[in-house]
Q: What sequence folds into this?
């Protein structure tokens, strides 16, 4: 065979290989399925439970959970509430405020996040139900996450009269530097209807809750402080320290109708008894 013929055959073989390679489509990496992680972000011993329903239970003690959550979506991650500050883990006796609430932390949120494989640096969005201290204790872990907050809540928390609403800017000194998206109503976080921030005013000027549609588990609404425990939800009782009692009652009625219409379950973030039946990270819900 001549050198010319060999060259032609080699060239033909090369062309064939290139054509075959062009026909091969690389399989994309599988998308991360929608998951919901639940974290123990502290506990609160209430020394007089009547603050949550005036005139009932004067002087009675009640322990509340303090839960926060991570939603892992194919298009990003959302941290929902940030609990009590991790630094309280060094104060086992707890910290008492207003002579009414003793707050304790037994495991840090930072460590729990690492255990799931989703460290704080992976969080793209930070959703805060409201700006009270037991929900913003670890916002400093997420300096690059986009803050999703109702306009009224942001204006109150970063305005000149934050203390009027029970907010303490000393607890969130770096949060003003986060990327920010002010909301003025419901917000579809990832644009596909699976993770929706719900506007639920009343407890604070711009309170919000989080609705998550999980394919296997079902539809869940994370309460924020819409209500603090089941008894108050059942009887529609409003804490004496809520920003707007009438708006709180109206919101509870609206949420009850929403839950029925969407066959959704209300997870009350502070309800210790309900939380004992919910599995926590590193386990998850899908």
A:
């Amino acid at each position: 065979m001549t050198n010319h013929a060999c060259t032609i055959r080699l060239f033909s073989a090369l062309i064939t290989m290139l054509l075959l390679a062009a026909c091969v489509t690389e399989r994309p990496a599988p998308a991360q399925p929608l998951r919901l992680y639940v974290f123990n972000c502290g506990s609160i011993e209430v020394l007089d439970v009547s603050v949550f329903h005036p005139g009932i239970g004067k002087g009675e003690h009640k322990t509340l959970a303090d839960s926060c959550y991570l939603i892992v979506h194919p298009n990003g991650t959302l941290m929902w509430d940030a609990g009590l500050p991790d630094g309280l883990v060094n104060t086992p006796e707890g910290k008492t405020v207003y002579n009414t609430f003793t707050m304790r932390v037994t495991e840090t949120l930072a460590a729990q996040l690492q255990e799931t494989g989703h460290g704080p640096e992976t969080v793209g969005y930070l959703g805060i139900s409201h700006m009270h201290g037991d929900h913003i204790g670890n916002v400093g872990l997420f300096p690059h996450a986009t803050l999703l907050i109702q306009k009224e809540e942001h204006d109150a928390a970063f305005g000149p009269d934050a203390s009027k609403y029970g907010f303490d800017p000393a607890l969130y000194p770096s949060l003003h530097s986060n990327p920010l998206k002010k909301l003025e109503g419901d917000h579809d976080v990832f644009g596909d209807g699976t993770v929706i921030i719900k506007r639920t005013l009343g407890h604070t000027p711009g309170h919000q809750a989080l609705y998550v549609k999980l394919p296997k588990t079902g539809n869940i609404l994370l309460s924020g402080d819409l209500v603090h425990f089941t008894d108050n939800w059942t009887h529609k009782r409003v804490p004496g320290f809520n920003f707007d009692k009438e708006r709180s009652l109206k919101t509870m009625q609206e949420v009850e109708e929403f839950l029925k219409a969407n066959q959704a379950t209300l997870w009350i973030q502070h309800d210790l008894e309900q939380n004992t039946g919910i599995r926590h990270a590193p386990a998850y819900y899908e």
Notes: Confidence is low (pLDDT under 50) at residues 3-8, 10-26.
